[in-house]
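Sample A.
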Amino acid sequence: MLNTQNVVLKMTAGRKDQFPRDGKVQIALSGRSNVGKSSLINTVLGRKSFARTSAQPGKTITINFYEVDKKLYLVDLPGYGYARRSADSRRVWASLTNDYLEAGTMQMIFQLIDLKVGPTEDDYMMIEWLNANKVPYVVVATKSDKLNVTTRKANYEALVNHPLFNPPYTDAPVPVILFSSQTGVGRNDLLTILSETLK
């Protein structure tokens, strides 16, 4: 089991030469701006404000490497799809994110999708890249507490049955995990996946 109390922000990287290459397992978090990546990190680690959340989506263009129990990194990729970001900022984002994805150091991606909003065009692009490159990933349906029971069930089933999450290169569909940073739903599932990845 992971000791989630033993966590440090190992590196805030703005260039590919700063990425850790020490052989530890790396689980990257991908998703659009304001989808709740920082809140997920805080919830999974049992911290209130370890990963900084921002009221201004798209503000950060760095990759944060959180070392957990000296065994793995939770890698917080900068959010995509922020329309008000300048052209220069979008180029920096694309370059840095591509450098990380192409480095080949990650074992898995947690692909976050706002359950209320559903997959966006940028989400589709990311998922198609994951499928094309056969990168293992889990879909995390965030902000599940924001919907009533009926809508939550319908939106969740729509994700589970989405053809993109049943890629031909795997025998089983991609797992879709309901998550809420407010209620803690899904936290244990994600911790189990992290522990299993270490094996």
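Sample B, a different protein:
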Amino acid sequence: MTTLRIVEIYRSIQGESTRAGLPCTFVRLAGCPLRCRWCDTVYSFKGGEELTFDSIFQQIDDYGIGLIEVTGGEPLAQPKTPQLLQALCDRYDEVLLETSGSFPVADLDPRVGVIMDLKAPGSGEESRNLWSNLEHLKDGDELKIVIADRTDYQWAKAVIEEHCPEVPILFSPVFGELEPAELSDWILSDRLAVRMQLQQHKYIWEPEARRT
């Protein structure tokens, strides 16, 4: 029987991406080989409970929300995650995956909306980026870059200029570290065609709050 190690399943308002503000059910998988300096889900690195797909579906169904996001940790660190994503696509309206981009995405079910969180130097995990993944982003996918300072911003700008990804691009300031107004000014000054985004859930609720 196929199982995955799950930290939590909960409903909340989608705080990021182009779907920000929409009700969403989150399935948070355990485990992550990365250690980003500003990670706000370190509790997902260990632990979790082995759940069958049916158990996962039952908890999702209890919330009655058709937008599902599989997140982590790093969801693709568990080899059976692609199977779960396919099963979710068969059952629900829209399925998203938030991934660091350090694991291949080319063979995922094409119905999955990939939100790729590319790692800037300030994260401490730039070396983990699997650059070939950018070639496999498709309609419905998004590229997110979390930015801590001007160095990260210049790096992100260079990445966009070099790779020209044809998906929505989101720049997100590190919460409590880079002022949103400052990042906005940089984007406006350079006339970048990117979306400046905030983590809405951290403004709606306490930043460290976990939803249930």
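Observation for Sample B: The chain has five helices and nine strands.
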